[in-house]
Write a structure and sequence with these properties.
Layout lengths: L22 H8 L9 H25 L12 H11 L8 H13 L4 H41 L8 H10 L23
């Protein structure tokens, strides 16, 4: 049998159509001139400037909620789900800190003695216990609800600590939450911060 190549009318060119560059030429094009600092002081200045730029980039990424810049406690789809679930609702526990501040201010105001006694009675006997029961009940409910929904939505994921994470986020004042909320109460996406 004759195994000579059969000529075809295939217009494909063979090879890449140009010669392979020499190694020194290819490496020379990749190299960029390095400007080494003149002394140690300049080297530290350059290093600090680079670190400051990296920190600023990471901070901006965290404020946008980018996953790779978040701390370990906030990473993962389950944690994002818990954050978004809490942020898209108004819960009683998010008013705990402002309510505590109002109570503190009321006890500092120098009311006349009779009014002060009524304020203390209202705060200590009525207001504070009602708020504590409300916060405790809300925290338990948020923890239970987020665990249940996360287990349904992410069956193979690790759910350890997700209820506590959600209830602690629900305790924070909305403007001070970190990472910043991605949703407004009611479920609408939050406008991007400038």
């Amino acid at each position: 049998m004759d195994e000579s190549p059969v000529p075809t009318d295939d217009p494909k060119p063979q090879g890449k159509g140009r010669p392979t560059p020499k190694r020194r030429d290819a490496e020379g094009r990749r190299r960029q001139p390095v400007t080494a600092p003149a002394n140690r002081k300049d080297a530290y200045k350059q290093m600090r400037a680079r670190q400051a730029a990296d920190r600023d980039k990471a901070r901006q990424g965290m404020m946008r909620g980018e996953e790779r810049y978040l701390p370990a406690r906030d990473k993962g789809p389950v944690r994002k789900f818990a954050r978004d679930w809490v942020d898209s609702r108004r819960v009683i526990s998010q008013y705990f800190l402002p309510f505590s501040l109002v109570i503190l201010l009321l006890t500092w105001i120098p009311f006349p003695t009779e009014i002060r006694n009524w304020v203390y009675f209202g705060v200590i006997t009525i207001g504070w216990p009602i708020m504590m029961v409300g916060v405790l009940a809300t925290s338990v409910w948020v923890s239970w609800k987020v665990k249940k929904l996360a287990a349904e939505k992410f069956p193979g994921e690790n759910l350890k600590g997700i209820g506590f994470y959600a209830s602690m986020r629900a305790l924070q004042i909305r403007r001070l939450r970190f990472p910043p909320p991605q949703f407004l109460p009611g479920g609408k996406p939050a406008p991007p911060k400038a």
